[in-house]
Amino acid sequence: MKLSKKQINKYKSLGILKVRLSKNILLKKKKFIDDSIRFFKYFDKITHTKKLKSHNFQDYLIKLRKRDRNLISKYYKVSRRFASLKSLIASEDLVKINKQLMKTNLVSICHFIAVRIDFYEEREKGYITKAHQDFPYIQGSLNGITFWMPYYSTSCAPDYIAGSHKSGLKIYKEFSINKNSGIKTLEMIKSTRNEDFSSISCKFNEMLIFSTLLIHKTSNKKEIKPRLSLQLRYDDISQRDMFNKNYPEGLYLGDTFKKNFKQYVR
User: Fold this and answer.
1) For residue 20, how far is the Cα from the chain centroid?
2) What is the b/e burial string over 224-263, where b = at least 16 CB atoms within 10 angstroms of the residue's CB?
3) How open is the CA angle 63-121-115, to the nearest 5 degrees?
4) What distance in Å separates the CA atoms of residue 203 and residue 21, rounded to the nearest whole number?
């Protein structure tokens, strides 16, 4: 896969780009979904899992959420270790696009959890993400990139503010999710208006590429079936600021945003 000059310019202007997947990436994506199904077949001993296939995977997860939400949580955690996911995220096709857009020969692959599962029924529990940028969570390079791929075609890809990446990194409030755990999360201080956001769809054979500085949020559209997506994140190792900060590990692995970017925390 190689982006055209027109596609590169569109990405620079909007901060987001939709592209078709190559046959190679499609095969790797299908292999990961197949491995995901194998995981549930192996650990969920209920008889009907023998009939579990890609076409009924979403319906299966709806029922599983009611009787064993913990198994879904374990899949969410361990899926980033799947060999099939490593093969996809490190594929030459995707690395080549990153080199084009970041203008670098040294591409960093973020080792965060790459799977996101959105159940509409759980929206009131705070699982949806409000307006944010990916960068404060990753803390890689400011020219970093997120690749967003749905498991299934969806009209509910993330809503975004076109061109918002150009205004740079925003100011955030950092606070504890749970006083006992000490885990930190972030909230962007600058308010956004719903009318500023654009919606976008994404087919199974497509992916979204967007800047980690792009302001985006979970779509408010209602989907009965769970929305499953892959979020593959990349950074530019050659960025001097990243080097000088000794390559922060990001919020997921305990590097608070304030520790490395205190000028952006209030």
Assistant:
1) 18
2) eebbbbbbbbbbbbebeebeeeebbbbbeeebbbbebbee
3) 75
4) 10
Residue 73 corresponds to which tokens in the numbers above? 């949580």
Please, which pLDDT band fits residue 252 given cuts at 50, 70 and 90? confident
Q: Worst-scoring range by mean pLDDT, 13-22, 96-105, 251-260?
A: 251-260
**Among the listed residues 94, 90, 88, 230, the one whose alpha carbon sits nearest the alpha carbon of residue 149:** 230
Tokens matching residue 203: 């087919």
H or E element in which residue 173 lies:
strand 172-176
Residue 216 is given by DSSP the state E
Q: What is the DSSP letter of 255?
A: -
Of the candidate ranges 74-78, 145-149, 179-183, 225-229, the one whose mean pLDDT is the lowest: 179-183
Q: For residue range 183-204, what is the model confidence (pLDDT) as tens digits?
A: 558 889 988 998 999 999 999 9
End-to-end CA distance of the chain: 41
Task: Find where tokens 């292999």 sit.
Answer: 31
The whole-angstrom separation of Cα 216 and Cα 144 is: 15
CB atoms under 10 Å from CB of 160, counted, come to 25
Whether residue 97 contacts residue 207, with contact meaning beta carbons closer than 8 Å, is answered with: no
**Which token pair is 126?**
């705070």
Q: What superfamily would CATH give domain 5-264?
A: q2cbj1_9rhob like domain (2.60.120.620)
pLDDT higher at 76 or 120: 76
Strand-strand pairing, 159-160 and 206-211: unpaired
Token pair 């994404």: residue: 202
**Structure confidence at residue 181 (pLDDT):** 43
